[in-house]
Amino acid sequence: MFGVGVADRVRNRIEKSLKEMPDLETTHLEDGNYRLIRGSAVLYLSVEEWGMRDVMVRCTSYVVMGATIDAELLSFLLEANAKIPFGSFAIDDDQDILFEYALIATNSARYELKEAIKAVAKAVDDYDNKIINRWGGETSYKVLFGFDAD
Length: 150
Prior knowledge:
The protein has 150 residues and is α+β, with helices and mostly antiparallel strands. It has helices at 4-19, 71-83, 110-135, 140-145, and strands at residues 25-28, 34-38, 41-50, 54-64, 88-91, 97-104. The protein has a six-stranded antiparallel beta sheet with strand order 1-2-3-4-6-5. Helix 1 (4-19) crosses helix 3.
């Protein structure tokens, strides 16, 4: 298991980063991780061990839930992955579309943490409606709260 001090330092940087981002609605979850809302994007930040000494921060968002997964959509997501410099789209076991960005955060600056959050929120904002309009489904915001954020 990694040193508690390292994880605490990373969580401290995360807390400071989130305070510097007033456009986020932040919920500290019981497991020590975070749920963030920015517009229609619902993001989850998790702090995980990486190897023997490092800590990884994973920022994940469910972009669209319930879309019709077909070869055309998969091709669309692969092409999008080639265009986006950080993070990538994936399909989970429930066939929901997510976007994820992970970084080794042991020595990361608050700037890097904020940019990871912004990259995920931007990808969700740029692609959720494109996917829904063509392949159906709903945003995770609508699934969680019962209405659209827009």
